[in-house]
Amino acid sequence: MNESAALAGLFREARPPAEWLPARRWNGLTVLDTYGCQGGAGMGYHLAGYRVLSLDNADQPRNPLAFVQADAVRFIAEYGHLFDLSHGSPPCQRYTRCQKIRGRDHPDLIAPTRTAMQSTGRPWVIENVEEAAPELRDPVMLCGAAFGLRTYRHRLFEPGGGLTITPPQHPVHAAPLAKMGRPVLPGEFMHVVGNFSNVPLARSEAVMGMPWASRDGLREAIPPAYTRLIGRQAAAQLGARPPALAA
After folding, report:
1. Is this prediction's pTM over 0.85?
2. 138 Cβ contact list (under 8 Å, min separation 6)
3. Half-sphere exposure of residue 36, counting CA atoms within 13 Å on the CB side?
């Protein structure tokens, strides 16, 4: 079986994407979105023009993209070479201050994810929280305010396999951040962590841009705006295929 047929088979076997996905012109490229949760990162790549296969080790019925339930590291190692780009958002609990205070033990998934991605010979992106900086290699930081969002939500992105990411200018944090769990007051930015209040606001285009997601999904996600930017930059570097081939 050739690579094109193998890739087509993966999409055929996946749960099909939601019919309501925003229309956009396919750029002829594919991305493997691992640790996909409810699809925040994957949606950004979809909006950037990619055909997205999202996966998670737990079923994610709210994830609107073509979806497979699988172990990320194993799937990347076996199938990642079939995709033009791989994205990974390993669970961040090992690195957050909250989990360190609680003293819980969580596995380091950044290193094995990187090793699997390197084995594909394709470009990749690994995303995580700022506290994971020691585990990441030359990461780029993105901030929600740079995208006009009412959340700062700093996240780090490690590009690999020859890929580069150019971040937008990081604006001054002029607006105060609502305290964790408190209602967001006029003029405040939202802190989408823990048992935050006002899920509809968090879902809105003003904050996360994920109207399909639950509270659990939102607090684990990155806004699609982040990966839409990354996806567009990656497409320019990879060379999007002619529309005639984007079938």
Report:
1. yes
2. 158, 159
3. 35
